[in-house]
Amino acid sequence: MTSSSSAAVGQQGLSPRELLAKVYATAGTRDWDAVEALIHPDFVLYEANSLPFAGEWRGRDALQRCAAAMYGTWAATDLEILDCTGGETHAVMVIRLTMHPKDGSAPFTQTICEAGTFEDGLLRTLRIHYFDAAEVAARA
Fold first, then answer.
1. Cα–Cα distance between 63 and 135 in angstroms, integer?
2. Averaged over 31-60, what is the pLDDT?
3. Domain 5-139 has CATH 3.40.30.10
4. What is the residue extent of each domain of the chain?
5. Are the CB atoms for 115 and 102 separated by under 8 Å?
6. Are 111 and 93 in contact (CB under 8 A)?
7. Integer Cα distance of 77 and 80 in angstroms
8. What is the DSSP letter of 38?
9. How many Å apart are CA 51 and CA 66, to the nearest integer?
10. What are the two backbone dihedrals, phi and then psi, of residue 6, each rounded to the nearest 5 degrees?
11. Using CA atoms, how far apart are residues 128 and 27, in angstroms rounded to an integer?
12. Contact call for residues 82 and 96 (beta carbons, < 8 A)
């Protein structure tokens, strides 16, 4: 379902870009109750089928569960938010993620675009796009 621009704007008058930035800033503090307040009850997060944390993650706690699975895949990670852009119904977070494999091999870095859609002023879907999902799967 595609949201109209008026339905995409948050209850606090936030644009999709502002709302997605708020979700990420709040997730960075690990205040998952506050994150869940920004997420639609029918939220779905999509990770590529080739990844170890693949699939459709559903529900308000999906972002927390998927993050735990993704971060648990690596010995360590370094995440840098590069930009957030958006329009009336979508927003995209551009991230640089450095992953440190558990086998002790050299860390590697990928650019990730995380595209969100919005409904009723809440984050409704999030599709994660790695620059090279095959490399992520192979190095996990």
1. 22
2. 97
3. no
4. 5-139
5. no
6. no
7. 10
8. T
9. 12
10. -70, -35
11. 16
12. yes
